[in-house]
Amino acid sequence: MDSKLLADRITELIFNKKGLDVKVLDIRKVTTMADYFIICSADSDTQVRAIADEVEKSLRDDGVKCWHREGYQSLNWVLIDYIDVVVHIFTKNAREFYNLEKLWGDAEITEVQDPVLAADAN
Q: Are residues 24 and 30 in contact, defined by beta-carbon separation less than 8 angstroms?
């Protein structure tokens, strides 16, 4: 699966568990460490875990294996690394504190809307 399709699939999985404020950072012109960062927020550590579990399980079922993950101990910030796409799942407070969008401000940032909410708005 190419990195853009993987990023799209991951955002879909995040919305399955009601992830909030989902942004895709295209970092290809900024660094060679990955193609995309996906950042989202959750209302609680329980929701952080639910989103992370949904992403990992569903992608594993799709044949995509996680290369590295961390943050399951505290559940304030879980990082799941798929090499070309890195997923960052934050509690709201941790996201404000670390402010990755500002840190990677040179990247092209796309805010992704929940397709269910977007359809309801129309």
A: no
